[in-house]
Amino acid sequence: MVDVIKLGIRRSARNKPLLPDPAPREVKYTLISVDDHLMEPPHTFEGRLPARFRDRTPRVVETEEGHQVWAIDGQPYFQVGFMCVAGRPREDQRLEPARFDEIRAGCYDVDARIRDMDIGGVYASVHFPSGVTGFGGHLFSKFDDPEFGLACVRAWNDWLHEEWYGKHPDRIIPLGITYLTDAKAGAEEIYRNARRGFKAVTIPEQPHRIGLPSVFSPHWEPIVRACAETGTVLNLHVGSAGFADMPAGAPILELGATLFGPMAISSAAEWLWSGYPARYPELKIAMSEGGIGWPAMLMDRLDNIMARSGYGSGWPDPHNSPTEVLKRNFWFAMIDDASTICTRYRIGVENILCESDYPHGDGTWPDTQQVLEKVLGALPAEEIRLITHGNAARLYNHPLPAIVRP
Question: 82, 157, 159, 163: which sits with the fewest CB atoms below 10 Å from its CB?
Answer without folding.
Answer: 163
